Amino acid sequence: xxxxxxxxxxxxxxxxxxxxxxxxxxxxxxxxxxxxxxxxxxxxxxxxxxxxxxxxxxxxxxxxxxxxxxxxxxxxxxxxxxxxxxxxxxxxxxxxxxxxxxxxxxxxxxxxxxxxxxxxxxxxxxxxxxxxxxxxxxxxxxxxxxxxxxxxxxxxxxxxxxxxxxxxxxxx
Length: 172
What we know:
By secondary structure, the protein is of the alpha+beta class.
């Protein structure tokens, strides 16, 4: 009898725990930032038709940021084909340096959506204290994973997380 109760209770507890975890997932805040053309863009409009999204906070002066975005750029087309992922790069360069961002992005030939958070409002709202700081969102726009810094091979962990997100699997 005890085994049958445990057999029924354990899956029920896991199911409840799963719902609790989902309730704790945060969505990105609604903050106005700038597109590279100078137009205003609200972060609540970051979407990808139910597919995973990467949001990468970076700066033109940050070598690990540039390394991460350049490394991902080399495999980005494959990632998009496999998972439908979209990368949104948010520069935290301030108003004195933001004019450098578009020429820099163009020189790197990055195909990402790139925005400017010149006043740091989005950065603060997301709790970003250092860059690179990268978030992965599920198809509902909820933050399911994040990390700071970048080291060679970090993109391999990231694509594994994206594959799990695409399949609807839990991230540990």
